[in-house]
Design brief:
Order of helices and strands: HHHEHEHHEEHEHEEEEEH
Shape: globular
Helix content: 25-40%
Number of strands: 10
Radius of gyration: 17 Å
Structural class: alpha/beta
Strand content: 15-25%
Largest sheet: 8 strands, mixed
Length: 256
């Protein structure tokens, strides 16, 4: 079918990471400047004590390529588990060890999971896909951090978010500029995106509830799919708990 005018406009915007770099005043060589921390931590759970989000961040940092972004999806083990705190903490930790990071708040309900820290922007990824917004309209820098933020849409079941080609173009453009592109979503929404773009992620973090200790394990299953080329980590937090917010994360939320 012939592309609509809005699709053509979206394609123009998302063709290259230059648009992202220009919008947020990021150098195209930012990735080359942020290699500290690649070798600073052991694998999660390999040392003494319980594994932390900081350990997982260091592991993913080491997994990231020297060129091209590392694309990571974070979701709960089921739809009742909200992984927003782990996502905020992981993005803060990655930023703190030198990785340029953007977090995409992916929701099909129109209710951003990180709505308490979404500030400043009036447009969403859906607007970018529709061709009615540009990158500088949808990317916002979070307070007192180097983490950037995009929300998917504030309208429920936005049809633009089902556009496989448009989504891949936008994510590819972000990959050109950021070391880490983190997509956060509840299980069902995350699964829909994963299926829509045919699993084009480098890694997945599944957040589960445990009992009295946190733990980390690798798995070959992600969101109900058997995966071979996606590094999947299952983080089991203390039952009913969430990531302990660092000072940096609290500053991002404007609480410090």
């Amino acid at each position: 079918a012939k592309a609509s005018a809005s699709r053509q406009a979206a394609a123009k915007v998302a063709t290259s990471g230059e648009a992202v770099a220009s919008a947020m005043a990021l150098p195209r060589t930012a990735r080359q400047q942020s290699d500290e921390g690649r070798d600073s931590h052991a694998d999660p759970g390999s040392g003494k004590g319980e594994p932390s989000i900081a350990d997982i961040a260091a592991m993913f940092r080491r997994e990231a390529p020297q060129e091209g972004g590392f694309r990571l999806m974070i979701a709960g083990e089921n739809n009742d588990i909200d992984p927003r705190d782990e996502a905020a903490e992981l993005s803060a930790e990655l930023s703190e060890i030198g990785a340029t990071t953007v977090i995409i708040d992916w929701t099909l309900s129109g209710q951003p999971l990180l709505g308490d820290i979404s500030i400043g922007q009036t447009s969403s990824m859906a607007d970018l896909l529709a061709g009615t917004a540009e990158f500088d309209d949808v990317i916002v820098a979070l307070p007192d951090s180097n983490v950037h933020y995009i929300y998917s849409s504030k309208a429920a079941n936005n049809k633009e978010l089902m556009d496989e080609n448009g989504l891949n173009m936008v994510l590819d453009a972000l990959d050109e500029v950021y070391d880490n592109v983190i997509v956060l979503g509840r299980y069902d929404d995350a699964r829909t995106l994963f299926e829509t773009i045919e699993g084009r992620f480098d890694a997945g973090l599944i957040v589960a509830d445990g009992e009295t200790r946190s733990s980390v394990a690798s798995t070959g299953n992600f969101l109900g799919f058997e995966v071979a080329d996606v590094k999947v980590v299952r983080y089991c937090r203390i039952l009913g708990g969430a990531a302990k917010a660092s000072r940096l994360t609290r500053k991002m939320r404007g609480a410090v």
